[in-house]
Amino acid sequence: MIKPVNYEPSQHFGDNPTSILSADHWLIQTFGNYQPDGHTGIDYPCPSGTPVKAVTSGTVLHVGWFGGSYLDNPYWIAPSFAGYCYVVDHGDFVGIYAHCLDGGARVRVGQRVTEGQVLGPSGNTGGSTGDHLHFEVLPDGWIVNSRMYGRINPANILARISTQSTTVQTSKGFLMALSDKQQTELYNRIIRYVDSKVSDVPKRVWGMPVRRGGKQISALQELADAKTLIIKQQATIDALTAKVNAQQAVTK
């Protein structure tokens, strides 16, 4: 998991609720009471043309401007306000990248993108008062007719997953939905059987169901994929072993 652009936020989730502003405030006069409970995402003050990257792998759901009103799309994105944007299904959440450069897309609807792949350049389109990227997160099962229009704080997603990605590189992508305890158990199983054929691993090893990208899969598939990844990256096995040993020491 990475940030969509390499800039520090200028406006955070929940900042500047418009419900406390007077009717003659310039924001209300310009945009209306558009964020009554506060800012619905994170703003990154990057200059127009900055490459906007997919925060993690996913499938592109939308590219460009939305038509009609916010009621005409399932994300309640206000077309004139969001400007030129990208909507990407990242598995257990949908990422919305707004105010991007008009016509700058480097991806298309239906395309599978990888973490860090450039979606297009940032811009200043729609209801924007200056160059920046607006990034929002809709979690699985979102309810748009609710507080913050179903959005959650993107910082929670970025912080939770980036820790796993930077601490143990091989866990990036396929173990993000597991708890620390489940990860420890999986690491133990992987390391124990890393030199064995998948067919030689006892059936009881496959007993724990796991979730990947918001979907439940078999532990057989998860461990087989994990083993393949570890075999390709032998240099990381010592790091995995050290992590498991440290976690076991804490629980004893």
Give descriptors for this structure.
alpha+beta, Glucose Permease (Domain IIA), two-stranded antiparallel ribbon, single chain, 6 helices, 6-stranded antiparallel β-sheet
Order of helices and strands: HEEEHEEEEEHHEEHH
- The total beta strand count reads 10
Output the CATH homologous superfamily of the largest domain. Answer: Glucose Permease (Domain IIA)
User: How many domains would you count in the coordinates?
Assistant: 2
Compute the number of helices.
6
DSSP helix fraction: 25-40%
Quickly give the CATH architecture of the largest domain: Distorted Sandwich
Q: What's the rounded overall pLDDT mean?
A: 76
Classify the secondary structure makeup into a structural class: alpha+beta
The coarse overall form would be globular
Beta-strand portion reads 15-25%
CATH class of the largest domain: Mainly Beta
Task: Report the C-alpha radius of gyration, rounded.
Answer: 21 Å
Tell me about this structure:
The chain is of the alpha+beta class and 252 residues long. It folds into two domains: 18-161, Glucose Permease (Domain IIA) (Distorted Sandwich), CATH 2.70.70.10; 168-251, no CATH class. The chain is 26% helix and 18% strand. The chain contains six helices and ten strands; from the N terminus they run H-E-E-E-H-E-E-E-E-E-H-H-E-E-H-H. The strands form three sheets. Strands 1-8-5-4-3-6 form a six-stranded antiparallel β-sheet. A two-stranded antiparallel ribbon has the order 2-7. The two termini are 31 Å apart. The model is unreliable at 162-177 (pLDDT under 50).
